[in-house]
Amino acid sequence: MRIIITIVFLLLLVCTSTNTGFAQNSSAFMSKSKTLIQFSGIIMANDSLQPVLYANIWDKNTRRGAVSNSQGFFSFVVHKGDTIRFSAVGYKKASLVVPSDLEENTYSVIQFMQRDTVVLPEAMIYPWPTKEEFRQAFLNAEVPNDDLTRAQRNLEKERMQELALSMKMDGRENYSYQMRQYSASLYSAGQNPHIKVFDVFAWAEFFKALKRGDFKNKNKRKN
After folding, report:
1. pTM, whole model, 2 decimals?
2. Chain centroid to CA 28: how far?
């Protein structure tokens, strides 16, 4: 009985020492592998060496990351052996692995990214949903047979007046209008504004028009 108890006691001592040594080795390995590294760098385009603005840098292991600034610079904390992913609009994705044998707690890189040009297929946009509707509208369209009819229709007086009223003044017309307003204000500078009712020349033109019969109703039927 004493022999059995002695054997069990020795086995327990051996197991305890083994587990303790394994735990110490594991904790040392974990502490070494989980050392914090200050990861910094600049992201640049490989064809122009221009900085890549606002690129996404993402640590796949810790799910942490950063965004590059207006000079393409970034900096954040990672661990040894972590996989880092780089992505930006208009560039192909890239990745790298932080070396596990780093002796310092800083790691700097210059990451080049390749441009990703996307060529979209040609898209034809029509005002009709289907080809059948386009064919029907094309066949029912009323097109003048000669160029003269089309030109006369485009130069109709009512149409030209409508277009003239809908168009706004351009820069030249605005400048001319402002200069006329300025000249009119200088004409009566230092005195009361000029009133047409006291203009003798305007009254003379009025009496001349009255004698000519400019104010008579020309459409009035003669008795």
Report:
1. 0.41
2. 51
What is the distance between the alpha carbons of residues 30 and 81, in angstroms, rounded to a whole number? 12
pLDDT digits 0-9 by tens, 72-96: 999 999 999 999 999 998 899 999 9
Q: In this structure, are residues 110 and 44 in contact, taking their beta carbons and an 8 Å threshold?
A: yes
Residues 187-214 pLDDT 10s: 777 777 667 677 777 888 888 888 888 8
Integer Cα distance of 99 and 107 in angstroms: 9
User: Which of the four CATH numbers 3.90.79.10, 2.60.40.1120, 3.30.70.1560, 1.10.8.640 does domain 35-113 have?
Assistant: 2.60.40.1120
Query: Do 8 and 75 meet the contact criterion of CB atoms below 8 Å apart?
Result: no
Structural contact between residues 54 and 43, judged by C-beta atoms closer than 8 angstroms: no
* pLDDT computed for residue 28 by the predictor: 43
Residue 11, pLDDT > 60, answer: no
Q: How far apart are CA 62 and CA 77, in angstroms?
A: 10
